Amino acid sequence: MPPLLEAINNNGLGVFLAANLLTGLVNVTMRTMYIGDYTAVFVLVAYSSILCSVAWLGRGFRWKLG
Questions:
Q1: What distances in angstroms separate CA 14 from CA 5, 30, 46, 65, one per listed residue?
Q2: d(CA 37, CA 66)
Q3: Domain coordinates of the chain in residue numbers?
Q4: Model-level pTM?
Q5: Interior CA angle at 43 toward 54 and 36, to 5°?
Q6: Non-local CB neighbours of 47 within 8 Å, separated by 6+ positions
Q7: Is the torsion defined by CA of 62, 54, 25, 42 positive or negative?
Q8: DSSP characters for 1-63?
Q9: Beta-carbon count within 10 A of 41 CB
Q10: pLDDT one-digit tens code per residue, 40-60
């Protein structure tokens, strides 16, 4: 399995929580309905990069509930 995919798989809770926080941040800070194409692509690339970074940096941890 590719190392990044394994990191995402092992840290599902942390990646999920980061994705929810980032989604809320994007929705609060910009009017997504009226954004241009290039800005939308930039936001998606930044969003994906941040989530991949969270998974990659957290590969030594296994976030669990309880």
A1: 14, 24, 18, 10
A2: 42
A3: 3-57
A4: 0.81
A5: 175
A6: 22, 26
A7: negative
A8: --HHHHHHHHTHHHHHHHHHHHHHHHHHHS-GGG--HHHHHHHHHHHHHHHHHHHHHTTT---
A9: 11
A10: 999 999 999 999 999 898 887
The residue behind tokens 């970074």 is: 53
Tokens 């998606």 appear where? 44
CB 18 within 8 A of CB 48: no
Cα 16 to Cα 49: distance, rounded to the nearest angstrom? 14
3-state secondary structure of 40: helix
Q: Which residue has the tokens 């936001």?
A: 43
Radius of gyration, CA atoms only, the chain? 14
CB atoms within 10 A of CB 50: 15
Q: Are 47 and 29 in contact (CB under 8 A)?
A: no
Residue 63: which pLDDT band, with cuts at 50, 70 and 90? low
